[in-house]
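Ticket #4471: structure export looks truncated?
Reporter: QA, pipeline team
Priority: medium

Steps to reproduce: submit the single chain below to the structure queue and open the exported record.
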Amino acid sequence: MGKFEITKRKDGEFQFNLKAGNGEIILSSEGYTDKTGCKKGIESVRKNSLVGTRFKQISSTNGKYYFNLKASNGQVVGTSQMYKTETSCMNGIESVKKNAPLAEINDLTAQAE
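Actual output as written to the record:
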């Protein structure tokens, strides 16, 4: 089962990563100024991962692939890692769809406070 991990960046902002059951990061968030915003971002990923049209696959200038997950308002709520092939990118999308809805939240910042 996947899990969301909340961490704090060096710039003081909070972010989350969605990890698959094997520990691989499959989706990362933007930076949030507070933990509440970060948790709302997680809820948005949970909700929007259920809607296939919210995923946008993109090919980068270096020939690799990645995807964004967007909220209903069009805002990006998560970005994947880079993939070598289009197929592996599609597998990443399927992994987010499978893992995000029920993933537990592991707040790594609480241990540091």
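Status: closed, not a bug. The export was complete when the record was re-opened. Leaving a note from the reviewer for reference: The mean pLDDT is 95.
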